[in-house]
Amino acid sequence: MELVSVIGGSDVHRSSKEYRFAYELGKVLAKNGYGVVCGGRTGIMEAVCKGAKEEGGLTVGIMPTITGEEANPYVDIRVNTGLGHMRNPIVVATGKIVVAVAGNYGTLSEISYALIYGKTVLGYRTHKIDSVIEINRPEDVLEYLK
Amino acid sequence: MELVSVIGGSDVHRSSKEYRFAYELGKVLAKNGYGVVCGGRTGIMEAVCKGAKEEGGLTVGIMPTITGEEANPYVDIRVNTGLGHMRNPIVVATGKIVVAVAGNYGTLSEISYALIYGKTVLGYRTHKIDSVIEINRPEDVLEYLK
Amino acid sequence: MELVSVIGGSDVHRSSKEYRFAYELGKVLAKNGYGVVCGGRTGIMEAVCKGAKEEGGLTVGIMPTITGEEANPYVDIRVNTGLGHMRNPIVVATGKIVVAVAGNYGTLSEISYALIYGKTVLGYRTHKIDSVIEINRPEDVLEYLK
Amino acid sequence: MELVSVIGGSDVHRSSKEYRFAYELGKVLAKNGYGVVCGGRTGIMEAVCKGAKEEGGLTVGIMPTITGEEANPYVDIRVNTGLGHMRNPIVVATGKIVVAVAGNYGTLSEISYALIYGKTVLGYRTHKIDSVIEINRPEDVLEYLK
Questions:
Q1: Distance from CA of D20 to the nearest CA of C (A)
Q2: Looking at the predicted structure, is the pLDDT value of residue C62 above 90?
Q3: Are D113 and B89 within 8 A, CB to CB?
């Protein structure tokens, strides 16, 4: 199964534009047969998993601890790494492409690794980095998955 | 979804008892609603994924490279780590219990980490380690999953 | 012993301003009793190790492979990780502060992790990131080590 | 500088034969110009670092956290990994040879990785593994360093 990596801030409010975007993105990906892989926690990670599950999609969380008990309730498959922040490169290596939504330094590290690994990186209200392609609507991601 | 970690040698012959055991184990796990997580490559890893897929199960491979192209054809979800041998602890942390079949030093490292992490470890024709519980039939695993 | 993390591009020319800066930085650090920790390879990493050794300093290379044979000739202590690009967070976690010189996405990932870990990050002709403090001369680093 | 990896239990008593062995081993290594690399913590790790420092040797600790504040007082160079137990393979990859003293599953994981990586592994009162060469006196290690 093909997965899309979704990365972004863990402290994004549920009422924010960014949370809404990630939630809708989860729906779009699930409807089009793509699974989601993310860091498995709160904020953008929760939003995209929630959206994906509401459309019957599959969600994979690359978890920081060795128990994975910190997973949000919408994660199907918990990959327990024990790596903490060092799991970030695995999140982006596992997806066909990468979508960044908002985010802080953790997201910046993931964008960096995605670019090191030669992945296409799409961004919505995230860091301004030359190689990141800005998108405005969740559906825009489909064009890059063809 | 609950996963079971299956670990073991990558160079086991397809006609061996150990390959057969892992293949049947994959079937047993899938029939009983468990997914499989393994190192995603050849030998025991291939056998258990093949068995699981023939019964409609889900298979997760924790891959050594950042592309995952070395996955055996029965891996559904490729988690691309770029960690090489250092991915071994992730394989065992991700399963509810761990089953070791045959294997060499890589398998010994996985048994060690499983025991560090407090997992139940079952073994078939593998290293003799005090805390590893020997089993003789694939179905025996079910008793430890209750 | 206190170490300073020096990060930057591996493909910087030996005649460039950036190579020169890193080389002089190595000298400054060694003269002031600080060791150097870096990724152990070419370009900026070679330059800073060379400078440090010429002043009798100590150099630590966090190496990508498990043999460390790719180390530049000025690395005293090879820490062989087998982690490839995933060693980057270790480089920045090991230094008291971090100095970035030039660099591409690998350096960006290191800057990101340094900021995740709450380190002071100084930069010379590197990525423009809000929290990175620009410096112009190698000696400027001493002010941040007090 | 060439390093020797010393691995073993973190909960070994200071009055035990094993602690004494590791302490004397640190002295022997330092007197013969070898540095020590270990996991940087208590028990065997502390003992070997203490011995090495008393003879003016160099000690490298591969630390579990990103701050390294858990280092024993005899560690010169703290390599802060943030990897927890997953740092074990780095400890053994970094030494020319590996010496195991006592120890539990963590030590078993390190012996496993040392053998995966093709290292010579010497052991004193540790796990019985076929490829591990038993030694009885700290000086015996010198024969394997020639």
A1: 26
A2: yes
A3: no
B126-140 average pLDDT score:
96
Cα dist. C16→C9, C11, C47, D42 in Å? 12, 11, 11, 46
Cα separation, A53 vs A42, whole angstroms: 15
A101 close to A7: Cβ distance less than 8 angstroms: yes
pLDDT in the model for residue A129: 94
Contacts of A64 (CB under 8 A, 6+ apart): A39, A40, A41, A70, A81, A82, A83, A84, A85, A87
Q: In this predicted model, what pLDDT tens digit does every residue of D9-27 receive, in sequence order?
A: 999 999 999 999 999 999 9
- How many Å apart are CA D102 and CA D19, to the nearest integer? 9
Q: Closest residue of A to D87, CA-based?
A: A83
Token code pair at residue A95 = 């997806």
Radius of gyration of chain C (CA): 13
Each residue of A85-131: pLDDT tens digit? 999 999 999 999 999 999 999 999 999 999 999 999 999 999 999 99
Does residue C92 contact residue C75 with C-beta atoms inside 8 Å? Answer: no
CA distance D135 to D130: 14
pLDDT exceeds 90 at position B146: no
How many residue pairs from chains C and D have C-beta atoms closer than 8 A?
A: 56
pLDDT score, position A146? 87
Q: Which of B105, B108, B116 sits opposite D85 (nearest CB)?
A: B116
Which residues of chain C neighbour D76 with C-beta distances below 8 Å? 1
* CB B22 within 8 Å of CB B44: yes
- In chain B, % of residues over pLDDT 90: 99
Cα R_g (chain B), whole angstroms: 13
pLDDT one-digit tens code per residue, C1-36: 999 999 999 999 999 999 999 999 999 999 999 999
E strand or H helix at D93: helix D88-94
Per-residue burial over D90-100, b = 16 or more CB atoms within 10 Å of its CB, e = otherwise? bbbbbbebbbb
Q: Which helix (H) or strand (E) holds C72?
A: none
For the cut 90, the answer to whether the pLDDT of residue A79 exceeds it is yes
Q: How many CB atoms lie within 10 A of CB B84?
A: 18
User: Reading across the β-sheet that carries D77-80, which strands appear in turn?
Assistant: D77-80, D59-63, D35-38, D3-8, D98-101, D121-124, D133-134
Pick the residue of D86, D87, D109 with the most A CBs within 10 A to test the interface with A by mutation.
D86
Q: Which pTM value belongs to this model?
A: 0.97
| Cβ-based interface (< 8 Å): residues of A facing C | 85-86, 89, 105-106, 108-109, 111-113, 115-116, 129
The residue length of chain D stands at: 146
Task: Give pLDDT, residue C146.
Answer: 87
> D24: Cβ–Cβ under 8 A, 6 or more apart, which residues?
D51, D138
B80, B83, B117 member nearest A94 (Cβ): B80
Distance separating alpha carbons of residues B51 and B27, to the nearest angstrom: 5
Mean pLDDT over each residue of chain A, to the nearest integer:
97
